[in-house]
Amino acid sequence: MIGNRALTVLIAAVVIALTATSGHSYVGNYAVAPGGTPNLGNLWKVAAEQGAAGISGMWQGMSQAYCGAGTPASRCNAVQKITLDLRQTNGKVTGSYTCAYGNMVCRNLNTTGKVVSGEHRSGNATIRVLMPDGSTCRFGGRFTGQTGIGNYVCYSGGRQIERGTFRLSRAM
Prior knowledge:
The chain is of the alpha+beta class.
C-alpha cells in the first residue's frame, strides 16, 4: 500500500514527465510555449474576470412577504416563485426578474422586471428591480456559492409597499 507522501511524489513525477514531453510548461491551466515566459498579468486578469462573474447566472427560489408594518394585510405571508437572471461585470449587476404564483399572485400582477442597478462585493449583493407598474424592489443579501438569501423592500411613489425575505439557489 502506498502512503500519501509517496503518492504525492509519484503524481508530481508523472506531471513533470508529461510536461517535459509536451515541450510546454504550464501555469495554472495555461500552456506556456517552450522558452516562453508566462504572462502573469493575463493570468491575474483572467482570474479577476472569473471572480467578477460571481453571481452571474440564473437564480431561482421563493420570496415571502412579512406581515405587519410595511406590507398590506392582504399580502401577509404572500409567497411567490421568483427568478433572477443576473449578469455581473466588475461588481456591477444587471439582468431580469420574473415572478410566478406561489400561494398568491405576484404583487400588482408584476410577473417581470428589469434589474436596473446592482452591486456584488465579497458575497454581499444589492439589486434594484424596476417593475412594469413603476414600483421598485430592492433585494439585499448574501450570495455564496449556490445560495442567495436576504430581504427585499418594494417602494411606489416614495413609500414602502411591501417587504419580506427571499431564498434563491443557483439554477443548474
